[in-house]
Amino acid sequence: MHNQRKPTPARLFGALRQHFPRTHALAAGAASFALALTMFASTPEVEAKRHSLPVKLTAVAGDEQAPAPEAATAGPDHSEAPLRERRLQVRNGDTLSDLFQRAGVSAAEMYELLSSGDEAQQLSRLKPGEELTFRIDGDGALQSLEVHRDRLNLVEFSRGDGGDYRHILHQRQPDSYTAYREGEIDSSLFMAGSDAGLSSNLIMEMAQVFSSDIDFALDIRRGDRFSVMFGEEFLDGEKVGNGPIQAASFTNQGKTFNAVRYVDANGDASYYTPDGKSMRKAFIRTPVDFTRISSHFNPRRLHPVFKTRRPHNGTDYAAPRGTPVYAAGDGRVVEAGYSKANGNYVFIKHGERYMTRYLHLHKRNARTGQRVEQRQVIGTVGATGYATGPHLHYEFLVNGHHRNPATIVRKLPKAKSIPESEMGRFRAQTQPLLAQLESYEQPALAQRNEDNDNNVN
Hints:
Nuclear Transport Factor 2, Chain: A, 5-stranded antiparallel sheet, 9 helices, protease, metalloprotease, zinc, LysM_Opacity-associatedA, metal-binding
C-alpha cells in the first residue's frame, strides 16, 4: 500500500481545467476551493488551536528560548494567580474554627498551621475586636494569615517554599509626647478626672498609684486636687493610646502626696516618693474601685436581716453586681467556697500574721491553695448568702483578731524603698520628671493664689 497524496486546492483546480470549459472551470474551482477550506478547518488539530488559551510571551535575555506554543495548552498556573483575600473581625464567642470556616479555609489547613510551632498556639487566644486577614490560593490552600492585634502590632504566618509556615512579628513604634492634666474634685474623682480629659484607664491608674495612702471610697473630699503627667502616643498624626503615668501629685484633705515612676536596672517599673520610698504598701486600702461604704466596721451593729445586735467585723462596699474584687495583698488562698451565710467567699492568708476575707461574691476567680498577687482579681461583687443587695463584705484580721480595714492599712509598713546603692540612678531618672511636673503646676498654682488674693480684697 502506497501513501496517498492529500488533495490540495491547486490540484483540484487543475483537474477541473482539463475536463470543463474555462468559464465552467472557474466557477467549479471556486466552489471546490471553498469546500476544501471547510474540510481543512474541521480537522482535530485546527479545532484544538482555535480553542486553546492565549499565551502571553515575554522576552527572555540570552540564548534561552521562549516556551513552545504546545506548552501553553496546559492548565493555568495557580502559583502565579492572584491570591484571594478575606478579612474578618473576631466577634464575641468566635473560635478559630469559626473564623476559618467563614474564610472558606478547611479545618485541615487550620490544624497544619496550629502544628507549625509554639507561636501558632497563640491563635487559640484571640480576643474580640482583633482582625484576621486570610490569603488563599486558587486551590483553597492557605498561603498566609495576618493577626492584627491592634494598630501597632501585627503577627504574620506565611507559607515558605517548602510548605512550612514561618512566624514574623511586625511592630510599629508610635510617636510619644508628654501630656499634663489637672483637676479639682467637686463630687467624685471619676467626674473630676473625666472633666480634666483623663480616660477611665488613666483615672484608675492614678487611683492605684495612691491606693496605699488614700481610701478613694472614704477619704475623698470636695476641694481635693490632683495633677498628672503621662505619655500620649500618636500614629500617623492620630492618637492611638496613652503611655504610663510618669509623675503625679494628689492633695487629699490638705495633705499632698507625690509619686514618680522609676524603671530599675532589671526593667521593672514601680512608683516611689521623690526620696525613693515605695508608694506600694503591703496592702491596698480598698479591694474594689470607686465604691461607697454602705456599712462600716462596727462591733455593735444592728444586723439588717436578723434585726439583732451582731458585730460587723468588716466593711461593706456597695457596688454594682460584677464589679471586680482585688486581692488586698500578696498571699495564698486558704479557703474558697460557698456557705449559706457568706455566699461565695475567698479567704487569703498573707504571711503568718494577716488574713483578708471577701464575702457575698457573685463569682469566684480564685481556688483554694492558689497564690495571688496584690490587685489580682479574685472575684466579682454579688449578693449571695445573707445579703440585702450587691456589695462586698471585707474583713481584715491580725493574729486572728478582727481589725478595722479602713484604718489598719495605714499602720502597716510599705514595700522596700530604693537601696542606697541605686539612689544615684534613681535621682538621675526621676528628678527631671518631677521638675517637669512642677513646671506644669506652677501656672495653675499662681492663678489660684491670685484668685485667693482677689477674694480677700
